[in-house]
Structures are given as C-alpha cells and as structure tokens.
C-alpha cells in the first residue's frame, strides 16, 4: 500500500458495497477506515460476512461516518432517493464523494450535490466502473480515429438481467419510494453513458422513449427502450433497451462510416483479468453477397486490477492530489455524471409524456 492512502468510509451495507470493499482492499492507494449502517448490529454482521479487518471502525449511523475526522472520502451505495441528502451532508463536512449511480432522482437534485462538492472543494465521481477499464481507453483510440473508424453514425446497446422472484418483492430498485427510476436508472444509465462516451460526451439534441415500456404494479419501470438523436437533422442516432425481464446481456455496438466496434460485456467484463471487443474495418460484401470482405478483428486488453479497483485507484489519486498537493478537483467526472443524468431525465420525461420527443 502507498504511503498516506485515502481513508474511505462506506455509508450503507447494500450488496454492491461488498464489491467496493474488495476494490478498496485491492487499490494500492486506498484503505477502508469506517463502515456505517442504520444499526450497529447490521454493520457488525456485514463486517463479519465480508471478513473486514478489525481495524475498520463500525458505526450504527450514517452520520457517525461523516463525523469521523479520519475519513477522507465516502462511498454511498444508498437508494437513489437518499443520495442528495447524504451526499450534500458529506460534501459539507469536507468528505470527497463517490456516489452510486443513478446519481439522483433528477438533475435538479444532482445539481444540489455538485454545488455542495464545488463549494467545499471536494472530488465527486459516480460509480460507473466500466469507464475505468483499459478496454474503454483502447476502444476510444479506434472510435476517435477518423481514418479507420470514420464519422460516428449509429450506436446500439442493451443492458438486461432476469433476477429472482425475491428481487421483485424486496429489492430497492423496484420500490418507488427508494429507486423510482427502476430499470431506466439502474441499467439505462449504462447505455446512456456509453452513447455519450462514443459521442465525445456531446449531448444529444433530442430523445424519445419507445412504446414498449413495462411498469410494475407500483409504477416502477421494469423495461423500456429509447432513441437519442444528434444533430439538427438527426444525423446520428442511438437506440437502447434496458430490462429487468430478460436474460443477462450487456451489448454495445458503435458504427462509423468506415468501421464498426462490438462487445457483449461492456458494463461487466466476462473475465476479470482481461476484456475484449471486435473491430471490423472497411467491410464490404463480396461478389454475389455471399460473404464479407473483412473479418472482425478481436482486440484483447489485459487489466492489472479489476475495473472497480481501477476506479477506486483513480478516485483516490484525485483525492490525494487535493488533500496533499492543493490541487483542484477534476471537473471531468461531475460533468459526465450531469450529462448522463440530463439525458436520463429526458427519457423519463418522454415516458411520462407518452413517448413524446424531448429536446435537450
């Protein structure tokens, strides 16, 4: 471990917190200092189940983590409806904020969080792990190469999984008072983020949901699709489908005028130590249209750490720069989060309006 690592506090014992405990342990510049739950019994149970070090401070309230003067940064895997209150409170107490996605119920709430972070000079980042995988950087090398890839024309993505019956009864992602955005917030966030990434984080000009929306009896979105458009004449389009009702799939296709890029596991790599994608350059149909002139090239990208640990390492590095060297927070990450939230809001508005076209 590096000297003077960033000391993390985790607020909440959601299932995803197990993954981040491991990530913090693997990151060379971070350490888990504190864990807080709504009861000390739950905190102790989580610590035992995940074999946390006895040096980790256990608290029976979220506020106690924020009051700990040794905590540099907090990770908040709380229900979306609680994000604004606790993220703002953390920022005001000088804690750097790593926030699970979706970042907020809407952009207005996220703005409250970002304003508090900016006012306190703390780093903000959301928990979109795939952006930190080296495969993502390698794919961008190709997408940004106008000679090999050409102009961006089309993007398509699906993000789905079929959970157990218990999920629909107990999970916070289907409870309207906790995570009202449902599959759109949990899974659509990835698709929207991938589209923005491919488009150089340029906001689309408009968005429209498609009329295949499925709601639970409580009104939470279980499945939906949408189209995003770029340009005054909708020259570039992106389509996604997200669902809690289908087999696990995480596909992404990015198509340019000269080439196309495809992968089947863009949010969670199939294997932890490496990840791949296919790039097909300059393909045409051969004579009689009985085949292609070019075969897809498989590109394999190794990863020295799991992508969640790479995210922690990146976040901790930014925090160290602020804490130890007086640097300013990196603005890229809150800007990415806000753009993703704005597009998600537009899709949600379109759903509420009967799939009307919403201009951004």
TrEMBL record:
Residues 145-261 form the GFO/IDH/MocA-like oxidoreductase domain. One of its GO terms (molecular function) is nucleotide binding. InterPro entries: Gfo/Idh/MocA-like_OxRdtase_N, GFO_IDH_MocA-like_dom, NAD(P)-bd_dom_sf. Coiled coil: none annotated. It comes from the Eukaryota. Pfam families: GFO_IDH_MocA, GFO_IDH_MocA_C3. Residues 6-125 form the Gfo/Idh/MocA-like oxidoreductase N-terminal domain. PANTHER family: NAD(P)-BINDING ROSSMANN-FOLD SUPERFAMILY PROTEIN, PTHR46368. Belongs to the Gfo/Idh/MocA family. This is Uncharacterized oxidoreductase At4g09670-like.
